[in-house]
Each structure stands twice: as structure tokens, then as C-alpha cells.
Design brief:
The chain is of the alpha+beta class. About 30% of the residues lie in helices and about 25% in strands. A hairpin with a 5-residue loop joins strand 24 and strand 25. Helix 1 crosses helix 5, helix 8 packs parallel to helix 9 and helix 9 runs parallel beside helix 10. It starts with a helix and ends with a strand.
Length: about 500
């Protein structure tokens, strides 16, 4: 029989809900068994169910008459033979699997477990976490003074949630610096889209799910406002995005496509349900210099549809790791007893790569993230009383950049204070709320850097090389001439 964990893991990769009764009466008015009703839905909507003989239905009905308690497991065994995504779920299982798609009371962060601890993977728009200055990449080390370094993400989430209007203290570690903020819990209406400006002309957009039209609304607002920022390059982060509503993915792809009439994607239904439906772009997307899409093994379903459409049409470059490979979509049927039937009803097709079920997408630039262990005793001594400046060549510059490299702010240590070192120093100063415009490394900055390394001594954490590489690509692209001019009335014209 299918295991619950397997069924729940697949839930995040499903989409769309329809309400259909089951177990009532047949079209001719004759009474049905419960299995008859559920089977009717499977046969009517399942992509492969039409190939199964009804003798199986008759056999199962006889078996279930003697063993009614086995109905749940029998249906799931049958569904597992059809495909890996179809399943029968109790109302409790369904609620557990889709709880993240509903609103909740909390501070508004998404989390993931990493080798370095529970890390913030998302800061929701207009949330208490956003107002408090929490950032993606922060490691949560304490909640209300409770040490969370050995906790799971679920355990940390339980501490962060509470009654609306109550305060919670959150301590995070950011580049070796421990910061404590206070957030007031409130209702979080789940929106899985957020953004931030990472550099001059470079915008970062995180889409962690496509749960509803709310996500499309948030995305469109961000995208339509890019011209006001004179944005020239965009990083679209779809890592860990298990998908959601297919139409939302198609709308996002359309908004990002400049040319009209470009074939974006196809949705293939059973022939008796309409066959292949194709979607074409309406055009008019902002003419950016570069779009980089971040993907990984957690990018699936509708998120793969978006990423693959942008890749196949040449709209964007994919960077990261091979995606999950879920090229099928499901309907969610509400049964009259409160249970849910999830049935695969369609396949997703890309313009060049076709259906990616079981295959996934291969990024244009394949790159993983690194695990780094800090060993302060092996680093070159750093004199924190000096001031290091652009053009300096010394062992002290090497000692400083050796430490900056451990934070992923520079690719590798160097003894020359060059332009890359200037950018790394600026980034570190900004994260420590020091003047980022200073081009030199002052004694207070060197002291903060050395103390950060001492704080992290012996710890292992993940460097987000994927994001840093995407940022470098986009910063270079942003230096190229802008392809449009923003107008005072909020519109833009192509140069």
C-alpha cells in the first residue's frame, strides 16, 4: 500500500480543485457503491484510466463488500498503477498536505533545513518579518530565547506561530553577526512572491509557489514597477517551487515575453476532453538586458512550466541544478464524505522540450551550492589596526579576502585590493550597517570581519553560489545600455 509520506510529498506538486460528488447514484438512477462513485471519477478524468477494463471494478466491489475497511488502501493501490501523482486522501491528510496554501497567524517567513541550521528561504510581502528586516539566508538560532540550532524547521515554525497580536523575539545569524528582532504575530495571507533590489539595475524576485491568483497579482505589480526602478536585469528564483496553478505560471511567462505570438506552452488533455491546448504570448514584456532563472531539484510542475517556457523561447537563462521532472497536472475532487481524490488529468508540454515528466529541465549553467566549514586557526593573521585601500598589495589584503571568501563575497583570496575586493568590502559593510560607499577597509570593518569569523569558527554552512553567480551575470548585463526609457506617466518606450 502507498505510504502516507509518499502521498503527502506529492501534494506540493499538484494543482487546481474541482468539486464533484461521489458515491451517489448512476445516470440511470441505480444506486452505486462508494467505490463505483470514485471509480467513475477516475475513469472519466484519469489520463490512463480509460485503458483499464471494468472487470477490475466488479472484482474490487466484491472484495470491498467483504473488507470495507480496505477501500482506502485499495483505491490508492489502483491509483499508484496509473501514475505517481494520483491519490485518494482523507480530509485530515489533505489538510495536512495543503496547510501551507492557507493563511495563518505568524511572522511571515518560509524556512528550509540546511547543514548550518534552519534558514529563512522566503520573507513574505507586507509581513512582520519583512518589516523587522529579516532576510532570505538568515539562520534562525533562537526564538524567544529558546535555542533552535538543533531543531527542525517544523519545530521552529511551531515556536514562531501563536496568537494574533502577541510578540515573538527572533535571533538570526547573518554573515557571522547575531541579530535579534521583535515581530508581532498577525494574520498572514499567503502570497508566495517577494522581491528586493540587489544591485544597481538588478532586481531579485522570489516565487516559492503559485498557490492562487494572489501570487499572479503580486508578481504583476512587481513586474510592472520594474521600469520605475530602471531595472535592466532580473533574477527569478524558482528554487524549491513545487508548482501550483498552471494558469498563473502561463501568465507570468506571458508578462516576461517581449514578442507577440510566441508559443509559450501546451496543455494536453485526454482526447475526449479537448486534446492539446496551446498558449501564445501577447507580447509587450519589458525589454530587459538579462533574465536569469534559478532552479533546483525542488522546482517542479507549474514552476518547471514557467522556467522551461522562458528557456525554450530564449527569454531567460536557467542556472542551477536539474529540476524535479513533474510534467503532469491534477484535478482535486471534493468527495461528499470530506475525502479528496487527486487525479492526473493533463500533461504539460514545452515548445522545444515537450513533456518533461520524469525528465526535468537541464539548466543552461549547471551549478550547485557549496558547503563551507570555518577553521579560524588555519587563516592568515589579520591586523585589525590597519586601513587597507584600493591598489594595496600585501599579505593583509590576502588575510582579509580569505575571510570575505568564506562568506561568498569574493570568489577566491587575493593579495591585490582590486575592483572585486572593493565590491566585497562594500557588501560586507552594508550587511553590518556600516557606510557601504567607503571604498577602503577601515579598522572597525576589519574588526567586525574577524569577530564574525570567530563566531562561525568550527561551523559548517552553505554558500549560495547559485545566487551569487546569477548576481554577477546580471550586474554585468546591467552595465550594458538600457533598452527602454521610463516615461513620467509610468509607461515606457523601447529605445
Amino acid at each position: 500500500m502507498k505510504k502516507l509520506a509518499k502521498r503527502l510529498a506529492a501534494l506540493a506538486l499538484a494543482a487546481m480543485t474541482f468539486v464533484v460528488p461521489a458515491g451517489a447514484v448512476t445516470p440511470d438512477g441505480q444506486s452505486e457503491t462508494w467505490f463505483d462513485g470514485v471509480w467513475a471519477l477516475i475513469d472519466a478524468f484519469g489520463l490512463k484510466a480509460e485503458d483499464n477494463p471494468y472487470v477490475l471494478q466488479n472484482y474490487i466491489n466484491k472484495y470491498l463488500a467483504e473488507h470495507p475497511e480496505e477501500m482506502y488502501n485499495v483505491i490508492n493501490d489502483i491509483l499508484s498503477l496509473l501514475d505517481t501523482h494520483s491519490m485518494y486522501l482523507s480530509s485530515e491528510e489533505y489538510s495536512q498536505g495543503f496547510s501551507t496554501l492557507e493563511g495563518f497567524v505568524g511572522i511571515g517567513v518560509g524556512m528550509q533545513e540546511t547543514v548550518g541550521g534552519v534558514q529563512i528561504s522566503e520573507v513574505m510581502r507586507f509581513s512582520a518579518a519583512e518589516e523587522a528586516g529579516l532576510q532570505i539566508g538568515d539562520i534562525i538560532i533562537a526564538v524567544d530565547g529558546n535555542d533552535t540550532t538543533e531543531m527542525t524547521s517544523a519545530e521552529v515554525a511551531e515556536l514562531l506561530r501563536g496568537e494574533e497580536g502577541t510578540a515573538v523575539s527572533v535571533t538570526v545569524r547573518r554573515q557571522g553577526r547575531d541579530l535579534t528582532v521583535t515581530c508581532t504575530r498577525r494574520q498572514v495571507n499567503q502570497v508566495y512572491v517577494s522581491n528586493s533590489t540587489m544591485a544597481d539595475g538588478v532586481e531579485y524576485i522570489k516565487v516559492s509557489a503559485m498557490g492562487s491568483e494572489n501570487d499572479w497579482t503580486a508578481f504583476s505589480e512587481i513586474w510592472e514597477g520594474l521600469d520605475e526602478k530602471n531595472t535592466r536585469a532580473v533574477i527569478l528564483d524558482l528554487r524549491g517551487n513545487g508548482g501550483g496553478v498552471i494558469n498563473v505560471a502561463l501568465k507570468m511567462a506571458d508578462a516576461m515575453t517581449q514578442e507577440e505570438g510566441v508559443y509559450l506552452a501546451g496543455t494536453r488533455w485526454r482526447e475526449d476532453m479537448g486534446g492539446l491546448e496551446q498558449t501564445y504570448s501577447t507580447g509587450g514584456g519589458l525589454p530587459l538586458n538579462k533574465i536569469v532563472v534559478l532552479v533546483d531539484g525542488g522546482t517542479a510542475s507549474a514552476a518547471e512550466l514557467l522556467a522551461g517556457s522562458l528557456q525554450d523561447t530564449g527569454t531567460a537563462m536557467l542556472l542551477g541544478e536539474k529540476t524535479y521532472g513533474k510534467g503532469q497536472g491534477q484535478f482535486h475532487f471534493d468527495l461528499v464524505n470530506g475525502d479528496k481524490l487527486v487525479i492526473t488529468t493533463l500533461e504539460l508540454e514545452l515548445p522545444k522540450q515537450g513533456c518533461y515528466e520524469g525528465v526535468g529541465l537541464t539548466p543552461d549553467v549547471q551549478l550547485g551550492n557549496r558547503e563551507v566549514t570555518v577553521n579560524a586557526g588555519l587563516l592568515a593573521p589579520l591586523d585589525i589596526t590597519q586601513t587597507l585601500r584600493f591598489g594595496d598589495q600585501s599579505d593583509q589584503v590576502y588575510a582579509m579576502t580569505e575571510r570575505l571568501a568564506l562568506f561568498g563575497l569574493i570568489d577566491e583570496p587575493t593579495n591585490t585590493y582590486n575592483g572585486d575586493v572593493v565590491e566585497a568590502v562594500k557588501a560586507f559593510r552594508e550587511s553590518y550597517e556600516m557606510d557601504p560607499e567607503l571604498l577602503y577597509a577601515s579598522p572597525d570593518m576589519l574588526q567586525a570581519l574577524d569577530e564574525a569569523i570567530q563566531t562561525l569558527d568550527g561551523q559548517t554552512y552553505v554558500l549560495d553560489d547559485q545566487l551569487q553567480t546569477a548576481l554577477e551575470i546580471c550586474k554585468l548585463a546591467a552595465k550594458e545600455p538600457q533598452q527602454y526609457t521610463a516615461l513620467p506617466d509610468g509607461s515606457w518606450t523601447k529605445n
